[in-house]
Design brief:
By secondary structure, this protein is α/β, with parallel strands linked by helices. The chain contains 30 helices and 29 strands.
């Protein structure tokens, strides 16, 4: 007996473009029937539709769209059944010369009317009354055209009138009820409910008609028709236009959103993370818009992008790729995008103006659709970007529509910029119903020829529940189940092994993590290095994914990142990481991000790390945002952070080890470095004394890190400056020109600064009472009680100090440095300088300067009474007043004790008679005296026991002569 062939049942879909949602549903239902046990193996149902995926309908310019469709598809009269769908439009009138007239002599109102009448005429002639014609009418009111275009409104009214006229002949004149196969419905979901029943009955009737010839084989209970290659579940990635054949469960939301978008030019789809916002727009709304679902729109150029950290640049790149007049294969798109972004940033209103130019040669009614996904990114970056970008989006244009998806937990922040649009044009996407979840599970499986074990689909629906975000978990679990379905069957056992809906992501992530090479500590460090780049946490502790250039990932970490990309836990727009990484070469835009924020919740190891690192991640986000704002505003000092805040940042850096940009590194420069730089550039005049005082005080608070000012490794940190010797005897004169002695000055080292309060405190708090340091002094000064510091800040010179106390410190420091190995031999000795050694350093050796600097007294070079401060400053606040050797504050601030006897300097240079009480020399003047007393030659004497508030000292180190 000859093999029986499988019958092909062709069902024609006829409608205008405003019922795109219903056309998609009809195709899905008809294709699903191929797996119906009664039909499979006996017949193949083939929807005939110009908008079916893969339909090869050419559109030559010489033909009208209807003629082109006619030339590429079977005529309705040549098929087995015709489904007519109408709502608010009949469609575009047909040309009389090309299509003739209706039997009543009137022109055809549209291609849909022609198709209907062709089907009716064909059925009248066919012996079995084929095709069977079913007509469906949607009864809710279609959206009115937005704006004030009266012509468009008139067309809308005329189209509704024609639809009404089309149905008049079907009504019973007495009852007003429809006669024949006229079916009313109120929404796409309502249509699905009706059509699923009608389509099965239709298929059975057609089989019965064809079965009369006895050439149809019996039902086949084995095979399944497969209309999809690969996984019908996209996992954590969002559905896109190409996934429309496997996108189910959001029919009502799709139609409702299209209806609202027809009235609004700016729409927000708001929902919880993982609620399917991106998929709804990408695989639901956009394909139907492209098939004419929006009234009055002839065509679309769709620019899809995410704001990232530079929304204007992202928008510009998307426009360059979407609008034909902007495409240039030879041009550098990155450079062109920068220019366009700069234009829009400076003048946001120009987007509307430019759109008119870009579409000037397009058919009337062509529009640009901006699909802005993950809109919340706008509020995790620079605030200036958000304000300007928001203004641009709200500048109305008759040629641009915008649909943005946004997480609901960012709604309050968005209100600051979009109060009116969010009030009037936001669409809240809730969790799917149990029935919708079932469709999302079962229908894609049917398309791909997969079968669920009995009860498993219902179990997955129950496990998913209605908790926000669980939809993403379900999607990932389904994709993982597909990978385990080697024979096309999805089983309870595989589902249990994955850990169910709640455990699938965490299970795969932990398996991938466990397979990484390295020790536990090394892998934990990998999580920290990689995910601190990929996770941003706001001030409320909300974690969001962060898209970064792939080049930000360290070379040693890329292999593990590749494993996570292959597990679909991370995604990259390169494959999987390019040889040249983004940010490393011109034009490269390869990026890396977490596949979905559900990973943050479902992978316990990552969830715990985020919780422990939350404060650090918040700080990191704040730094990046503030740094970009600082750069955008020209790097003003007032936007820089104080050291107290920067200290937290440095601690965060130690823990997270983030990769910071050059701008970010400059922004977190220590405040000390800024203050030191300011000291160098302040005007060298009388206007800056108070500022110099304040800089010193601020440094004392935040930590003065200059070498020679503080303490290092438990000892005073001295900076020793070399001074050449005199090479023979030199006469030294006082302020009156009188010679007080002849001395040969040997080479020596002198401290850059006076001994500071912090440095002296190390001595005072450690070994101050040790008799060794006070040996030879009068009995009652062994030791001498230490007086209170007048200017009690760490980096101020130690004041209220006696000669005895200065000598004791020098002895102690000498011993400490010698014990530490810092003094090579006995020839090196720390002590106070003699007055001629001190004067030699100030005078600049043989230059015989009057002050440490050239040119006589200069206001603003030292802290004397002219400064009006009436106190000491921190050491070194007048760097331009340095001596030739580099020593600072040798004029003003505090008198400095010298080693020798005032009255008999030459005979007592070695200080053998320490207990005599003879007056000792002070040099350099002080803050309360005028510049006259700050001259290099001025000598002053005081009892060695005296410890007035205006006395201090610096130390000196004897060394062998220079070679």
């Amino acid at each position: 007996m000859p093999m029986q062939s499988v019958l092909k049942l062709r069902i024609f879909l006829s409608s205008p473009g405003d019922v795109a949602a219903e056309r998609k549903i009809a195709r899905e239902v008809l294709e699903a029937l191929n797996n119906d046990p009664f039909i499979k193996g006996r017949a193949i149902i083939e929807p005939i539709a110009w908008d079916a995926p893969g339909a090869r309908v050419l559109m030559p310019v010489s033909l009208t769209p209807q003629e082109a469709i006619d030339s590429g598809l079977a005529k309705p009269s040549e098929t087995d059944a015709v489904i007519v769908l109408l709502w608010g439009r009949m469609g575009t009138p047909l040309d009389v010369e090309r299509h003739g007239k209706k039997p009543d002599g009137e022109p055809y109102w549209s291609g849909t009317e022609w198709e209907y009448l062709d089907a009716v005429a064909g059925a009248a002639k066919h012996p079995q009354k084929l095709p069977i014609v079913l007509v469906y009418r949607r009864t809710d009111t279609p959206p009115t055209p937005e704006g004030d275009d009266l012509d468009l409104l008139a067309q809308w009214i005329e189209q509704r009138k024609r639809v009404k006229q089309f149905f008049e002949p079907f009504r019973d004149a007495v009852t007003g009820a429809y006669r024949g196969n006229i079916n009313e419905y109120t929404s796409p979901d309502d249509f699905r409910t009706q059509f699923e029943q009608d389509a099965r009955l239709l298929a059975k009737e057609l089989l019965a008609i064809h079965d009369k010839g006895g050439d149809i084989p019996p039902p086949d209970t084995t095979g399944r028709r497969i209309n999809w290659t690969g996984s019908p579940f996209p996992g954590l990635r969002a559905f896109t236009e190409k996934d429309e054949p496997i996108f189910f469960g959001r029919g009502y939301e799709t139609a409702d959103l299209i209806k609202r978008l027809s009235k609004q030019r700016l729409m927000f789809v708001v929902g919880a993370s993982g609620s399917g916002k991106s998929s709804l727009v990408g695989a639901g709304v956009i394909p139907q818009l492209q098939r004419g679902a929006a009234y009055g729109v002839a065509g679309w150029h769709i620019a899809r992008f995410t704001p990232g950290d530079n929304p204007f640049k992202r928008l510009s790149l998307a426009l360059l790729g979407a609008i034909p007049t902007l495409k240039d294969m030879l041009a550098d798109d990155d450079e062109r995008a920068e220019k366009l972004a700069d234009t829009l940033r400076k003048a946001p209103e120009k987007l509307a103006q430019q759109a008119e130019k870009w579409l000037a040669d397009e058919p009337d009614g062509t529009e640009i659709l901006l699909f802005i996904d993950q809109f919340e990114e706008l509020f995790t970056g620079e605030s200036d970007h958000a304000t300007a970008f928001a203004g641009m989006l709200q500048a109305t244009s008759p040629q641009i529509r915008i649909i943005a998806t946004m997480r609901s937990d960012f709604y309050e922040r968005a209100l600051l910029h979009f109060e009116a649009p969010l009030r009037d044009a936001s669409y809240t996407l809730g969790t799917p119903s149990a029935l919708a979840l079932y469709e999302m599970i079962v229908r894609p499986a049917e398309v791909a020829g997969l079968q669920f074990e009995a009860g498993l689909a219902e179990r997955i629906v129950t496990d998913t529940g209605d908790k926000p975000g669980n939809l993403a978990l379900m999607a990932y679990a389904l994709d993982e189940l597909y990978k385990l379905s080697g024979d096309g069957h999805i089983t309870h056992a595989d589902y249990d092994a994955l850990g169910g809906v709640q455990g699938a992501i965490g299970t795969r992530a932990e398996q991938t993590y466990a397979a990484l090479s390295g020790t536990d500590d090394e892998k934990a460090a990998w999580i920290q290095r990689v995910f601190h780049e990929l996770v941003a946490v706001d001030e409320r502790g909300t974690a969001t994914r962060r898209r970064v250039p792939a080049g930000r990932i360290a070379e040693d970490d890329r292999e593990a990142v590749k494993d996570f990309v292959e597990a679909r836990l991370l995604v990259s727009d390169a494959s999987p990481l390019p040889a040249e990484h983004s940010g490393e070469g011109a034009g490269m835009r390869a990026e890396l991000e977490v596949a979905h924020e559900a990973l943050f919740r479902s992978w316990e190891r990552l969830r715990d790390w985020i919780a422990s690192a939350q404060e650090d991640l918040i700080l990191l986000r704040q730094v990046r945002t503030a740094a970009h704002e600082w750069e955008a505003k020209g790097r003003p000092d007032f936007l820089l952070w104080p050291q107290e805040r920067l200290t937290l940042i440095y601690a965060m850096q130690e823990r997270l080890r983030p990769e910071l940009s050059e701008v970010e590194r400059d922004f977190i420069e220590p405040e000390q470095e800024r203050l030191y730089r300011e000291l160098e550039i302040l005007p060298k005049d009388a206007t800056t004394h108070e500022r110099r005082r304040d800089i010193g005080d601020r440094l004392a608070v935040i930590g003065d890190t200059r070498p020679g000012v503080g303490v290092k490794d438990g000892l005073p940190d001295m900076v020793w400056l070399p001074v050449e010797g005199s090479g023979g005897e030199v006469e030294f004169r006082d302020e009156d020109g009188k010679v007080y002695g002849k001395f040969e000055v040997k080479p020596f080292y002198i401290a850059r600064y006076l001994v500071t309060y912090a440095q002296y405190q190390v001595f005072a708090e450690s070994d101050y009472d040790n008799p060794r340091w006070w040996d030879g002094f009068p009995e009652k000064y062994r030791p001498q009680k230490l007086g209170d510091q007048r200017t009690k800040i760490a980096n101020a010179p130690r004041d209220t100090i006696s000669w005895y106390q200065s000598i004791a410190f020098a002895r102690w420091l000498d011993a400490q440095l010698r014990d530490a190995g810092s003094l090579p031999d006995a020839a090196f000795q720390v002590r106070l300088p003699t007055e001629w050694e001190w004067q030699w350093a100030v005078m600049g050796s043989t230059e015989a300067r009057e002050y440490p600097w050239l040119g006589g007294w200069q206001e603003g070079f030292a802290n004397t009474s002219e400064a009006g401060l009436n106190r000491t400053t921190a050491v070194g606040m007048y760097p331009h007043g340095a001596a030739v050797c580099g020593a600072l504050d040798m004029s003003g601030n505090l008198w400095e004790w010298c080693l020798n006897d005032y009255n008999n300097p030459q005979s007592d240079a070695t200080n053998k008679n320490l207990s005599s009480g003879a007056p000792r020399v002070l040099r350099g003047g002080a803050f309360y005296l005028s510049h006259v007393d700050a001259r290099a030659a001025v000598r002053y004497d005081l009892s060695p026991v005296n410890r007035y508030y205006n006395r201090g000292f610096r130390v000196f180190c004897v060394r062998p002569p220079f070679s």
